[in-house]
Task: structure prediction
Amino acid sequence: MDWSERLTRSSQHLLGHAVHFTRALREAGVTVSPAQTAVFAESLSAVNLLEPREFCDAARLTLISKREDLARFEAAFTKFWRDLGLGGVPDELLGNLRLPPPKKPSQRPGEVRDTGAPKNRDPNASPQTVVDRALTFSVDEVLKTKRFDRMDAGELEQAKRAIERFEWRIRPRRTRRLEAAGRRGERLDMRGTVRAALRLQGEFVRLKRKSFASKPRDIVVLCDVSGSMERFARLLLHFVHALTQGRVKHRVESFAFGTRLTRITKALERRSVDDALREVGATVNDWSGGTRIGGSLNGFNRGAAKRVLGRGAVVLLISDGWDQGEPNVLARAVERLQKTSHRLIWLNPLIGTAGFQAQTRGLLAALPFVDDFLPIDNLKSLGELAQHLSNLDSRRGARQSGAGRIKTT
Amino acid sequence: MRPQSIEATLTALEAHGYVAEQSLATAVFLALKLERPLFLEGEPGVGKTEIVKVLSKMLGTRLIRLQCYEGLDVSSAVYEWDYARQMLEIRLLEASGERSATTVRREVFGADFLVKRPLLQALEGDTAPVLLIDELDRADEEFEAYLLEFLSEWQITVPEIGTISAAQPPVVVITSNRTREIHDALKRRCLYHWIDYPDYQKELRIVQQKVPDVPAKLAQQIVSFVQRLRDMELYKAPGIAETLDWAASLMALEVTSLEPAALEDTYGTLLKYQDDIVRARAAARDLLAQMQPV
Result:
């Protein structure tokens, strides 16, 4: 549901909420007089309630009279909106939204603007809610850094909603197909050049050019759903679903594995996340069982890999690395996987754990063949992943070879 | 001359040196009979390209081959203009005092200046050629979309000249190594056939036919060993092409019976991944032992 729909529904209650808000502001230590509250209420009839920026401005203009209170105001406002169930709005209100870029109204003569970072902010004021630029959704700091397996049902719901709103972009891949380009094009377009010349009595005045076209990069997800991953698996599948349904049309191929590999791409292509996850649950047989990462990856390398890794795909391997198989088998499988993919990113929910070290022998053996080893245990790490993907190098990184060879007898 | 039955197709293919499975012969026969493109998929080295060459020999027609790759576009697959000659012609016309832009354009974009690429070539001639569109999985979706149109209309439009259509549609065979899935719409337009590895008897006949000097016993050992290798979990199981290379290598090394030493010297003709060679080496003794009764 779009936030404005939600807001429309709740607008009749808005006045009541507004009164609550002034109370909340007082609790936060801001002095608000009854007269200010009355002006605020009046101002609400003059602004477009569906325009959150206007609403926020109205509140700030009418209720706040000291620069020192601005931080408290913003913190209280963020909380107020979230309590209204409009979690996505506050970023926008605070001017931190990245996409689409906020329209900045031109400064009117004499208008004094809040320039963002006041120099002499009250050091005792509660810290302002800073929106992580890597996250295009808004949740508070606590939730953002809370591990998925420690969240209660309500928080999980919020996290899922945040994940659904997430915008995933991977830097596009340059294809070998040429398309018409401006003067900076890297190849000469002879056909276009001759045609242009004919229009000028055969004078070759301007050279037409072409450039290589770009396409969204393919993504392959290999998700561990074995017993040790149980606490994370559902939420992470939510994430894979969001990735599949993303607005940028990446081709996403997904596989789940425990002791063997199951393709879940079709299931996750279902629009509704609930239907999708239900189907995944029905498709995957070794849910919450043992783990043979090496064996599963080998199965992938020998089979599906040949069909889905052809076009320089980014591979996201989601696993905690608890492998019951032979370490060398895992290392060799990971090495092959790396060599056939554009970039191999191992996402491990345990990295975030205090004192975590890659200790399992399989993981230790495999790590040299992983391009990135990143955490995926809370919303913040997802945000960082998104950031990482959007800045991905268009060339393959330097790689080594020689994962533990099988000893010949 | 097109064969009139599946049996005749099988015989004709064999007469031209291709040992085919019954099912493949059926596919070829139907493709010719129904004038439908034949879509062949299978692991590399199972003889997809080979059958097309044989087919053109069998039919006594030209073979036109289009090798696909990413970015394959109209100027490489269909037609291109000869720009150097066009530029020269513009200058010549200018020198002769021709000033009418229309005339110049008509001259320069005439059929004489058209460079025909495989798809356009395939529409020409009185007898239908065999058109091989090889490894379509390497091309991109844009080309696939173009091909879909070509396969349904059997005509090509060159804006400057007009529409060129075939007197008789070419015999089209499309191959794919399945490095990605080809769109359903295209496959639906074709007869689809998956070429599998041949069984022992078939492969033995192929080896004896292609490497005639190989002693009967060695041929049996070679085929038996390869067939067992294919049962192992390898990244790239050896195809028929590899079997033949291997047989030829063993002949060149004057090997008369399959022994570990000979095997060790020639793994590279059979297997193309170091990991696979390591696996095969580990299993070689067992494999050789299993073969003894043969």
User: Anything to note?
Assistant: Chain A touches chain B at residues 175-178, 190-191, 193-194, 197-199, 201-202, 204, 212, 298, 301-302, 306-308, 310-311, 332, 336, 405-406, 408-409 (CB under 8 Å). The mean pLDDT of chain A is 77.
